[in-house]
Amino acid sequence: MKTFYLSFGQVHAHAIRGITFDKDCICLIEAETYMKAREIAFDTFGDKWCFLYGEKPDMSFFPRGIIRL
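^ that's the sequence the OP posted. Answer follows.
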């Protein structure tokens, strides 16, 4: 499995299993390929997310850190 990192826009906030995913955190997704990670992102968050990274982004922009999906 590979690790992918998903970010959210300013108005994208989601509550998944009692955990808030928003602009201040990165969602960690483990998947076999980029396309599978993208599919998981759409299945979980719809089209309300920003970028899907293959490498860990600059965390200075995400004060809440990384949250595993």
